Amino acid sequence: MGDIDYRKVTRPETEQVTLGILFLDKNNEYSPFDLSEDCFYSEINRQVFQFIVKYYLEEGRTPDIAMAIDYFLAERKNYSKQIMAMIDSVPTLTSYPYYVSDLHRAMVERKTSEL
Hints:
By secondary structure, the protein is an all-alpha fold. 58% of the residues lie in helices and 0% in strands.
């Protein structure tokens, strides 16, 4: 069996846009609980997602980008560019359900290809 081509079963742009939507959703229309850590292949995206969930559980809302950047800088991780790219990549907030579905599909494809 050959090596798995994870480019076919990951969605880096989709991961980025989905997290960006969560940061921009000030009305709390969307919940990070529609997703799981396994939906994110990128380690940075996974860590950002974990931060969003932790903050959401503590505060009942999604953090803003400044809070996220400050948090990661305090952890000695400079994800400022990646977080800003998440915000910049969002075409529209209403596309969230589509991106969530696509991340779930990619997760299933990854898990299936690892069998």
